[in-house]
Write a structure and sequence with these properties.
The complex is a heterodimer of chains A (113) and B (111). By secondary structure, chain A is mainly beta. Chain A has no helices and eleven strands. Helices cover 0% and strands 59% of the residues of chain B. The chains are: A mainly beta (113), B mainly beta (111).
């Protein structure tokens, strides 16, 4: 069966520090991968999505970047965090094909102080 | 761009009462998905609707897709405390093809 791993679960980082969140998927090949951010009490904002290795599409201009070095690995990064980067970050995958049902990781709650 | 609105934002019910959340899109959708997120948890896929006028049931949950494929609803009959959480719809546009999430409806159930 397919599983998705996302870590860490919680993270407290000072303003100006770098960020690296990692997500891996097991049990499937060539998945579509997504990074979402969820502000408190709000819906999910799509940040990045990827349909293959090295293929990244950015949805909103921001202080973040994403990379997909391997088929089932998706990384969210920042060189210098801002206070506004705080939130709940969720990685998700779906089967190849456009915008089928998404399976979410456990999420990372990031607080920038 | 495509906008997906959900109402109400919050709903408080007594256990045993019914609950309905509505999802409205500014554009015609190719499909709509519903997710449930428990407090402190991550969204979990519930169902996908594709056809105009489609109705699907999962035990006490009934999902509908409007005839014009621009709106959808989720109805829970006789709520239970296990139904607590935030329910999100995600509508996929016909052109760009990307899914847009609504802001969700948060349901609390008083025992």
């Amino acid at each position: 069966s397919q599983t998705i791993h996302q870590w860490p679960a919680t993270l407290v980082q000072p303003v100006g520090s770098p960020l690296s969140l990692e997500c891996t998927v097991e049990g499937t090949s060539n998945p579509n991968l997504y990074w979402y951010r969820q502000a408190a009490g709000r819906g999910l904002q799509l940040l990045f999505y990827s349909v293959g290795i090295g293929q990244i599409s950015s949805e909103v201009p921001q202080n973040l970047s994403a990379s997909r070095p391997q088929d089932r690995q998706f990384i969210l990064s920042s060189k210098k965090l801002l206070l506004s980067d705080s939130g709940f970050y969720l990685c998700a995958w779906s089967v190849t094909g456009w915008w089928t049902e998404a399976f979410f990781g456990q999420g990372t709650r990031l607080t920038v102080v | 761009g495509q906008q997906v609105m959900q109402i109400p934002q919050y709903q408080h019910v007594q256990e045993g009462e019914d609950f309905t959340t509505y999802c409205n899109s500014s554009t015609t959708l190719s499909n709509i998905q519903w997710y449930k997120q428990r407090p402190g948890g991550h969204p979990v896929f519930l169902i996908q609707l594709v056809k105009s006028g489609e109705v699907k049931k999962q035990k006490r949950l009934t999902f509908q897709f409007g005839e014009a494929k621009k709106n959808s609803s989720l109805h829970i009959t006789a709520t239970q405390t296990t139904d607590v959480g935030t329910y999100f719809c995600a509508g996929r546009g016909t052109n760009a093809g990307k899914s847009t999430f609504g802001d969700g409806t948060t349901l609390t159930v008083k025992p």
